[in-house]
Design goal:
- Helices cover 53% and strands 7% of the residues.
- By secondary structure, it is mainly alpha-helical.
- It has a domain of 64 residues: Arc Repressor Mutant, subunit A.
- A 3-stranded antiparallel β-sheet has the order 1-3-2.
- Strand 2 and strand 3 form a beta hairpin.
- The longest helix has 21 residues.
Length: 107
Amino acid sequence: MSNHPADFNNLPEKVDAIFNKLSRIEKMIKESPRMNVEPEDRTLTIKEASELTKLAITTIYSLNYFGKIPCWKQPGGKRLYFSSKALIFWLKNGRPTKREFNKLRRK
Protein backbone atom coordinates (compact mmCIF):
# COMPACT_ATOMS: atom_id res chain seq x y z
CA MET A 1 0.00 0.00 0.00
CA SER A 2 3.06 2.31 0.03
CA ASN A 3 2.60 3.14 -3.69
CA HIS A 4 -0.93 4.43 -3.17
CA PRO A 5 -1.22 8.16 -4.06
CA ALA A 6 -2.88 8.94 -0.70
CA ASP A 7 0.07 7.49 1.29
CA PHE A 8 1.81 10.53 2.77
CA ASN A 9 4.35 8.63 4.88
CA ASN A 10 7.09 8.96 2.25
CA LEU A 11 5.97 12.23 0.69
CA PRO A 12 9.36 13.99 0.97
CA GLU A 13 11.05 11.16 -0.95
CA LYS A 14 8.38 11.25 -3.66
CA VAL A 15 8.65 15.03 -4.02
CA ASP A 16 12.45 14.73 -4.23
CA ALA A 17 12.11 12.08 -6.95
CA ILE A 18 9.75 14.36 -8.91
CA PHE A 19 12.21 17.28 -8.69
CA ASN A 20 15.05 15.04 -9.87
CA LYS A 21 13.03 13.86 -12.86
CA LEU A 22 12.02 17.44 -13.66
CA SER A 23 15.66 18.57 -13.53
CA ARG A 24 16.67 15.82 -15.94
CA ILE A 25 13.84 16.75 -18.33
CA GLU A 26 14.81 20.45 -18.23
CA LYS A 27 18.44 19.56 -18.94
CA MET A 28 17.41 17.37 -21.89
CA ILE A 29 15.27 20.16 -23.32
CA LYS A 30 18.03 22.76 -22.98
CA GLU A 31 20.58 20.45 -24.60
CA SER A 32 18.26 19.46 -27.43
CA PRO A 33 19.67 20.59 -30.80
CA ARG A 34 16.26 21.88 -31.87
CA MET A 35 16.08 24.27 -28.91
CA ASN A 36 19.36 25.98 -29.83
CA VAL A 37 18.68 26.56 -33.51
CA GLU A 38 17.74 30.07 -34.54
CA PRO A 39 15.04 30.26 -37.20
CA GLU A 40 16.35 31.38 -40.56
CA ASP A 41 15.58 35.02 -41.25
CA ARG A 42 13.72 35.50 -44.53
CA THR A 43 12.31 38.53 -46.27
CA LEU A 44 8.56 38.08 -46.65
CA THR A 45 5.95 39.66 -48.89
CA ILE A 46 2.73 40.92 -47.38
CA LYS A 47 0.96 37.70 -48.42
CA GLU A 48 3.62 35.58 -46.67
CA ALA A 49 3.48 37.86 -43.61
CA SER A 50 -0.30 37.41 -43.57
CA GLU A 51 0.09 33.63 -43.62
CA LEU A 52 2.73 33.70 -40.87
CA THR A 53 0.80 36.02 -38.56
CA LYS A 54 -2.68 34.69 -39.42
CA LEU A 55 -3.78 38.29 -39.96
CA ALA A 56 -5.71 39.62 -42.93
CA ILE A 57 -3.70 41.63 -45.45
CA THR A 58 -5.90 44.67 -44.77
CA THR A 59 -5.14 44.36 -41.05
CA ILE A 60 -1.42 44.31 -41.80
CA TYR A 61 -1.77 47.43 -43.94
CA SER A 62 -3.62 49.14 -41.06
CA LEU A 63 -0.96 48.10 -38.54
CA ASN A 64 1.70 49.48 -40.90
CA TYR A 65 -0.19 52.76 -41.24
CA PHE A 66 -0.11 53.18 -37.45
CA GLY A 67 3.50 52.02 -37.19
CA LYS A 68 2.57 48.97 -35.12
CA ILE A 69 4.16 46.18 -37.18
CA PRO A 70 7.84 45.79 -38.14
CA CYS A 71 8.23 46.24 -41.90
CA TRP A 72 9.94 48.36 -44.54
CA LYS A 73 9.70 49.53 -48.13
CA GLN A 74 12.47 49.67 -50.70
CA PRO A 75 13.51 53.28 -51.38
CA GLY A 76 10.99 54.69 -53.82
CA GLY A 77 8.97 51.47 -53.70
CA LYS A 78 5.37 50.79 -52.77
CA ARG A 79 5.53 47.18 -51.54
CA LEU A 80 5.91 46.26 -47.89
CA TYR A 81 8.51 43.72 -46.83
CA PHE A 82 8.86 41.89 -43.54
CA SER A 83 11.58 40.03 -41.67
CA SER A 84 10.38 36.59 -40.56
CA LYS A 85 12.45 36.84 -37.34
CA ALA A 86 11.13 40.31 -36.56
CA LEU A 87 7.52 39.17 -37.10
CA ILE A 88 7.95 36.12 -34.87
CA PHE A 89 9.48 38.31 -32.15
CA TRP A 90 6.66 40.83 -32.60
CA LEU A 91 4.03 38.08 -32.31
CA LYS A 92 5.57 36.79 -29.10
CA ASN A 93 6.25 40.14 -27.45
CA GLY A 94 4.76 43.24 -28.98
CA ARG A 95 1.63 42.58 -30.95
CA PRO A 96 -1.12 45.08 -30.06
CA THR A 97 -4.23 43.69 -28.43
CA LYS A 98 -7.54 43.84 -30.28
CA ARG A 99 -8.63 46.74 -28.06
CA GLU A 100 -5.41 48.70 -28.81
CA PHE A 101 -5.80 48.02 -32.53
CA ASN A 102 -9.42 49.20 -32.55
CA LYS A 103 -8.40 52.41 -30.74
CA LEU A 104 -5.77 53.04 -33.41
CA ARG A 105 -8.31 52.53 -36.19
CA ARG A 106 -10.70 55.12 -34.69
CA LYS A 107 -8.07 57.90 -34.63
